[in-house]
């Protein structure tokens, strides 16, 4: 991520009185540890910046300047919310607002160009995180992905989807097609399948938030959720 | 024969792609062949999946929630006398399965399984993000053939026992 940033930091660091050796050893530590240690673009301070801890950490602890977003910022960490599937909508919304309160570009309208740029990037990272996490299906897929079980286009090919699930979905979609134009029947189907989706969400919560994570099982429940969310969308489109 | 058909299709697809490259780059999300199959899909329908001469392949793309069913009807020698499909998915998935049923009709089932997703994708000028739709069609053919073979084997064993 940070050749440019590191170089910039190196220049700043060597300009200041802080020892070059200390800088080098910290760089090595950074390469070998997973803790994100980034130098402040403004003052070169090398304090660990961890956006998970508090909103203050989006700013340099030494000079208070806004920092660019972490390249691989985890969505939960960006919002400062504990990583789990069973997070409620209001908790996410509060977290998003709390972040935007300090990061939004409106707060930086008279700041330098660099600060405005960092603020815009931070704010859009927060929006992106909120967009993914507020939607149960996208949140489930994201959690799978962060645990190395992301759903890809090759799924279904190397690991075939359970034919019984596919049969069930096929029948559901056929029923919807038949009900086209019949609003009453469509509404019946909608309530029937929203119950299915609710159940899928419950299962997803159980599996994703279990103490021992079972990737195969997690994938299965998320597949099922994906299919039935699609079924719901299909009905809504026709209503 | 099938190979030749595919080669012809591929050739015309190449010519088309040059002619279409410009307009597609501007606005076209789907190639006109995809649109054509989408508006006018061939062989939509269902066979009785319990029929001994019917093979059913049902496959899905969990990333997007698409589901595709492709069926074949075979004669004693294993020639595909008829084929149909039902796909709930995007235009490319529908077009891919529509093309697949057209191509495999009249071929032997062992020849049908040699159809590659690249052939379908090329024929329909599918963009890279839609390649998985043609993979779905290839997998559906294989799974339909595997299904009817398994059925026949099971009945042969039942007879022998």
Structure write-up:
The complex is a heterodimer of chains A (239) and B (161). Chain A is mainly alpha-helical and 239 residues long. Helix content of chain A is 61%, strand content 0%. Chain A contains 9 helices and no strands. Chain A has helices spanning 3-15, 20-32, 75-79, 89-103, 113-134, 136-146, 163-178, 183-208, 215-238. In chain A, α4 (89-103) packs antiparallel against α5 (113-134), α6 (136-146) packs antiparallel against α9 (215-238) and α7 (163-178) runs parallel beside α9. The longest helix of chain A has 26 residues, at 183-208. A 3-stranded antiparallel β-sheet of chain B has the order 1-2-3. Chain B is an alpha+beta fold and 161 residues long. Helix content of chain B is 55%, strand content 16%. Chain B has one domain (32-160): Sufe protein. Chain: A (Alpha-Beta Complex), CATH 3.90.1010.10. Chain B is elongated, with a radius of gyration of 16 Å. Chain B contains 6 helices and 3 strands; from the N terminus they run ααβββαααα.
């Amino acid at each position: 991520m940070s050749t440019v940033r590191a170089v910039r930091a190196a220049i700043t660091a060597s300009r200041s009185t802080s020892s070059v050796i200390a800088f080098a050893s910290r760089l090595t530590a950074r390469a070998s540890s997973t803790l994100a240690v980034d130098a402040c673009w403004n003052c070169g301070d090398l304090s660990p910046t961890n956006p998970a801890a508090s909103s203050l950490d989006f700013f340099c602890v030494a000079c208070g300047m806004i920092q660019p977003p972490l390249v691989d910022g985890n969505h939960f960490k960006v919002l400062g919310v504990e990583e789990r599937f069973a997070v409620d909508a209001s908790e996410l919304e509060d977290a998003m607002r709390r972040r935007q309160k300090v990061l939004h570009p409106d707060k930086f309208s008279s700041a330098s160009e660099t600060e405005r740029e960092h603020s815009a990037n931070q704010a859009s990272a927060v929006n992106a995180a909120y967009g993914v996490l507020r939607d149960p299906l996208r949140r489930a897929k994201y959690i799978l992905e962060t645990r190395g079980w992301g759903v890809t286009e090759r799924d279904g090919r190397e690991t075939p989807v359970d034919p019984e699930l596919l049969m069930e979905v096929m029948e559901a979609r056929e029923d919807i097609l038949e009900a086209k134009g019949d609003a009453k029947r469509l509404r019946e189907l909608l309530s029937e399948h929203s119950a299915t989706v609710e159940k899928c969400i419950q299962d997803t919560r159980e599996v994703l938030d279990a103490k021992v994570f079972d990737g195969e099982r997690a994938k299965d429940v998320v597949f099922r959720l994906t299919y039935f969310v699609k079924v719901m969308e299909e009905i809504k489109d026709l209503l | 024969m099938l190979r030749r058909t595919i080669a012809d299709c591929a050739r015309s697809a190449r010519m088309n792609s040059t002619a279409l490259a410009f307009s597609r780059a501007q606005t076209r999300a789907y190639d006109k062949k995809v649109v054509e199959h989408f508006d006018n899909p061939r062989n939509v329908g269902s066979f009785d999946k319990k029929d001994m001469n019917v093979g059913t392949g049902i496959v899905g793309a969990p990333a997007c929630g698409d589901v595709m069913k492709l069926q074949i009807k075979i004669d004693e020698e294993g020639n595909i006398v008829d084929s149909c499909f039902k796909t709930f998915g995007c235009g490319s998935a529908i077009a891919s399965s529509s093309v697949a049923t057209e191509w495999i009709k009249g071929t032997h089932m062992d020849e049908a399984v040699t159809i590659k997703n690249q052939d379908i994708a090329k024929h329909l000028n599918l963009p890279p993000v839609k390649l998985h739709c043609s993979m779905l069609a290839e997998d559906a053919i294989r799974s339909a053939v595997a299904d009817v073979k398994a059925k026949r084997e099971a009945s042969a064993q039942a007879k022998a026992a």
